[in-house]
Amino acid sequence: xxxxxxxxxxxxxxxxxxxxxxxxxxxxxxxxxxxxxxxxxxxxxxxxxxxxxxxxxxxxxxxxxxxxxxxxxxxxxxxxxxxxxxxxxxxxxxxxxxxxxxxxxxxxxxxxxxxxxxxxxxxxxxxxxxxxxxxxxxxxxxxxxxxxxxxxxxxxxxxxxxxxxxxxxxxxxxxxxxxxxxxxxxxxxxxxxxxxxxxxxxxxxxxxxxxxxxxxxxxxxxxxxxxxxxxxxxxxxxxxxxxxxxxxxxxxxxxxxxxxxxxxxxxxxxxxxxxxxxxxxxxxxxxxxxxxxxxxxxxxxxxxxxxxxxxxxxxxxxxxxxxxxxxxxxxxxxxxxxxxxxxxxxxxxxxxxxxxxxxxxxxxxxxxxxxxxxxxxxxxxxxxxxxxxxxxxxxxxxxxxxxxxxxxxxxxxxxxxxxxxxxxxxxxxxxxxxxxxxxxxxxxxxxxxxxxxxxxxxxxxxxxxxxxxxxxxxxxxxxxxxxxxxxxxxxxxxxxxxxxxxxxxxxxxx
Length: 510
Ligand code: NAD
What we know:
There is one protein chain. The mean pLDDT is 97. The protein is globular and about 80 Å long. The strands form six sheets. The chain has a seven-stranded mixed β-sheet with strand order 14-15-16-13-12-18-19, sandwiched between helices. The protein is built from 15 helices and 23 strands. It has two domains: 280 residues, Aldehyde Dehydrogenase, Chain A, domain 1; 187 residues, Aldehyde Dehydrogenase, Chain A, domain 2, CATH 3.40.309.10. It is 36% helix and 20% strand. Helix 4 crosses helix 5. It is of the alpha/beta class. The structure holds nicotinamide-adenine-dinucleotide. Nicotinamide-adenine-dinucleotide binds next to helix 8 and helix 9.
């Protein structure tokens, strides 16, 4: 396949790189990467060893010492070149994202576009790493705060956004003066290897140090666990399930490291009686079936006012019948496969649990077989009736299952249902009523990190800070002032006077 060739993906690939050199370990076992699109073997990756990890950390730390001394706007210039290199390979990389992960080609290309966009954002940010100047309470004193580079950042990423989330962390971290070590999901290492190959050209042509952007592929938690415990990594950014994030947070906090946690969601859309259903319906379908329900921001709960419940239910069942399921690389399809057979099992188990707990499946729930579905990872998206307090509804099932939940009375009741889960990532309301939308966005409204009006829960822009509250972990990445998470803050006081006014008016006879 030509896109594999363009991206330097071979039949067998090494799993550890310092940005310039690939470590040549090949005795630790290998990952065989099968495409969920067609069930075919794409390529394999040799797993990294403990020695590889050690080598990578040392190089990343040495690179940090150099990189932090490069003026921030010059660091931005390197990121600008990375953005251009990604532009050159957008088609190939987007295609590999689609083939390895299973999201539609449009979404694969969109993910690479997000990488390009965050590069552009980071270039601007490189000239705006501002601290504040504060008026001192003491005479002839100046007080200000400034932000310094932090160190080597560990980036642990999830399979569903195999490259974009890395770039949110790595590009912002890079302009902040940090170097990074990337541990991608072991389900999607090929896209990470491809990115590393794209970066190499920029690193070499600028004579940048080895270790600026490193990659390490380990099986499951092998390498990741080492990173969590490693004091040489002052910040670990974890994107993944709440289970992994909870464990990560415990281990990292024990050593007083910093963590950015981007964990699971259980996102809801509220539709009130005044809503424009011409907006709401496509908003719900896009957010619920996009990426086959495997986005952290996927809509999992639809909270409908009782007066429009039956109408919206019927419209949704009809809309779901028009969703074309098939090979994600065929642009006429809307929904591709789940990542693997394990995910299909989780989907079936959730449907079983839903029925046992009293819910009703209205449409979907089948695993597709036959021509075009040989991988065994294609399922039909589900619309089901449920209660918010069902244990299965309280969980994030990473599959296209949408629970319809009825509310009565005022919007406050719908907001209470929206908030009555452990996760707090994304939320939305469809309404044409000003009081309702303002109530949803007010301090007594949605408790999520993302709250939208008249658009769905997914499809966040990189310019805003991305992340969520409660068991979603509290981290923020990407735009706004998320860059502050990648730097250490220092408060400085300078006395340019002739006296030394001590705090609390204390005087010594010296
Ligand atoms: P996962 O939790 O299974 O894995 C995430 C990453 O953690 C992988 O790289 C994995 O290898 C690594 N890992 C596993 N055990 C580890 C350990 N002990 N120490 C260190 N690392 C370890 O998640 P997944 O299935 O790849 O992704 C889906 C999950 O990610 C969903 O819950 C989804 O909501 C979440 N997600 C959240 C966001 C967000 O921004 N909030 C974005 C994307 C995905």
